[in-house]
Amino acid sequence: MSESLTQFKPFRGVRVLDMSQGLAGPYAAQMLVMMGATVLKVEPPQGDWGRVMGVARDGHSSLSVSANWGKRAICVDARKPAGTDILKQLVRESDVVLESFRPGVLAKIGVGYPVLEQLRPGIILASISGFGSTGPHSTRPGSDSILQGSTGMSVMNETEEGTPKRVGMLAVDMIAGLYAGFALSAAIHEQRATGQGRHLDLSLLGSASAFQAMPLIESHLQGGAKNKHVTVPSGNFATSDGMISVVCLRNEMFVALAQAIDHPEWAEDPRFADNESRQTNAEEVHRLLAGVFVRRTRSEWVERLNEAGVLCGPLNSYQELQQDPQVRFLDLMPMVAHGAFGDIPMPRFPGAGLQAGELSPAPDLGQHTCELLRESGYSQSEIDSFLAAEVCIQARQSG
To answer: CB–CB of 33/39 below 8 Å?
Structure first.
């Protein structure tokens, strides 16, 4: 990483209260951490539900670990009046609040946006919900899988047999986190320039829809018909020892492909003369290519086609990706230490001034409760009473 990038911390001095759970909100807050912001993760006594998703250990999971590096954690029961008061004090000390409750929940616990504005004029509130804060579906619970289905993503990703299929990761949550991080960056810039705060109302529905603008427009132009390949050939093919992905974006690339696979006559075949012709005969193009690619190894084809200027790459597992020479050269996935899981691969955050290895690991539930309360002006006797009444919880691991 260049020296100039390590000093790139544009949000130094910005204080964020991250009340969100799961992945979308925490990932947006993680973006701000990587740019130098101070982020306090506020959790209820039962903790962020993301802590128990997938492989979980000692109160952490791959989900919670990936989105909470460098944050300090406080556990507050906002259902209790004393907890609400603590939350309000934290708001007074913050520039940004991020939440992912269902619409109306924040107001119900006494810290809706009008209250936040009174506590801290010029504050930014980012709300991330499944379907938005208003409208006929606003009160519905929303999850990544549900939104992949309802926004057409599962149909767009259907199998060869026509069965809708979800993308095998929390794609909508990640997309929403990225859009939220971008919107928050713009709002923080405005806040610093003018003192103006605002309420950003984001949704998984809106994020997934925006992300799919190209296939959505393509479907509209085709009158709702099934999307054809934008370019042919384009697909995954078996080799003698693995799979490769091959794409020809321009006609010259198909000519180069035909020569590289020792079938130059295909470039002269009227059925394959241009992309429109190849789209009409896509099944035949892909059938012929499948018969050729299976005769050599994956590495042989990747080398040969790339030398010919044809887009081609291996279909890697995550383990193979970590060993990829270019990934290793750029150090894109350094191993970093996390107490619960030991050393884990943590991909570098593109363009950020800070990276996971330079930050403290994702915190335990309530890991910094007592020290954050002290920093907010509470006496030790008050803190002891909060702990005794279970208004707050301090993680055992940190004393």
So the answer is: yes
